Amino acid sequence: MNPLCNDKLSELKDNGVDIPNYRLHGNTPKVGIVHIGPGAFFRGHQAWYTHQALQSQGGDWSICAVSMRSAGVSEALTPQDGLYGLAQLDSNTAYQVIGSISEVLVAQQQFEEVIARLAAPHTKFVTLTITEKGYCLNTDGKLDFTNKEIIQDLKGESQPITAVGMLTMALSKRKLAGLQPLCILSCDNITDNGKKLRAAIIEFAAKKDEELSLWLQQHLICPCTMVDSITPATDDALRELMSKELLVNDKWPIKRESFVQWVIEDTLPDDCPAWEAAGATLTSDVRGFENAKLRLLNCPHSTLAYIGVLLGIETVFDVMQQPGLVAFVEKMIDEEVIPSFVSPKELDAKQYSNDILDRFRNPEIRHLLAQIAWDGSQKLPMRILPIIEENLQHNRSVASLSFAVAAWFLFIRKRFIEKDELVDPLASALFDKVSACNDDAEHDIAILLSFDDVFTSQLSNNEKFAYYLQNAYKTLLPLIKNEPCDWQALV
Ligand code: CS2
């Protein structure tokens, strides 16, 4: 079968495939956006929005996608001229060829080219999906100057290896060249993502060049964003499906649900891709949407993932077939999550939550719980712990949320006992800690609360929280020994 590439687009169009018209006849818009972290989520989400914008409004807004280290995406997409197939899998299915990426670079190998792209006058935007750990923040949400990679980048003896280090270098070049800084959009599941990113860059710059940091304080725009679309990892079944649908060989297609949402703080410069026309919402209240999404989607996702993995369940769809677990999560949402925040006026929290639980029931999306369980040390402080901290401050219940945290801890213990890999940047420190557990709830929860890269001191010193954690721990402990647990205690 022929490979997917520019030359094949006319033929695909003749076959009725939905193709990027703006890429026909060898045309490729100029690069206006650099994206760091070209994983599946970016390709299903921001690259799709830019594709829709180019398709309807045109413009020179193609994307240079940059991986910090891994060459996999470049190896797959470069021979395909950046093109790939996107399958929207739902009650209705849709297939498209996305053409918004025109170039894929690997920073570790092509550093000068990446910096040149970031510093080019025509580049106006940077988008980021580097996951929570990519920002190198501490539990206060500030740049962690004890992080080894940040220390290395500050020394400046070799090319930067962090996104913050690399962006600061590019911004410095732009300042020297008399250009505007970039408009940088964090698209990760982090509270106040734009504000934190902006502060991290400015603090990093301040340690290197005071004037640069002052200039950035005046001119750098980092809008906050909320991103949403469930995008499981690509598997062979998808590759097979796409070759049947497109009749070409696509090395790395992407699948996602049809639901997609991008809420962007309305501080974008006037000259920007037609993201709004493509369906993005511009608003001054991103925080309300962000809270709603992190608390009503990501928090239940992680809760279901840790408890589900402990129960030996594989996917989100499967976990949603367990009435006891669903009842537990619904109770957690009603009693502890919805009361914890003020939702934006456009949004009815209960309805939004019900719609999310329905999305979890999409039978076409095989979303592995093990994938959601990755990087718990980075995810919990964004999606679960702030709710607990606020509930404790306001004397609201934390009983069910404590089950989510205890399940995460037992998930780590289970991986340790079974000598399985733990995908988490703090894996070895976490394994070290759990190696001292002895099944006594008071003793073991004290170990959990000593993870000071995860829990703030307010949380680790809170007796009520410790009490509920011990309670949850005792209930769930049998699961790591493959014994049944007392479900009634959860609901
Ligand atoms: C998930 C998210 O893997 C995870 O941690 O909770 O990736 C989730 O699917 C997205 O945020 C949905 O927009």
Features:
491 residues; Rossmann fold; N-(1-d-carboxylethyl)-l-norvaline Dehydrogenase, domain 2; five-stranded parallel beta sheet; three-stranded mixed beta sheet; 22 helices; globular; binds D-mannonic acid
Specify the oligomeric state: single chain
Order of strands, main sheet, comes to 5-2-1-6-7
**What is the CATH top level name of the largest domain?**
Alpha Beta
CATH architecture of the largest domain: 3-Layer(aba) Sandwich
CATH topology of the largest domain: Rossmann fold
- Give unreliable regions as ranges: none
The hetero compounds bound to this protein are: D-mannonic acid
The best one-word shape is globular
Percentage of residues in DSSP E strands: 5-15%
User: What structural class results from the helix and strand content?
Assistant: alpha/beta
Number of helices: 22
Major pleated sheet: 5 strands, parallel
The tally of strands reads 11
Say which CATH homologous superfamily of the largest domain is assigned. Answer: NAD(P)-binding Rossmann-like Domain
What number of structural domains do the residues give?
Answer: 2
The percent range for helix content is 40-55%
- Rg on CA atoms, Å: 23 Å
Average pLDDT over all residues: 96
C-alpha termini separation? 53 Å
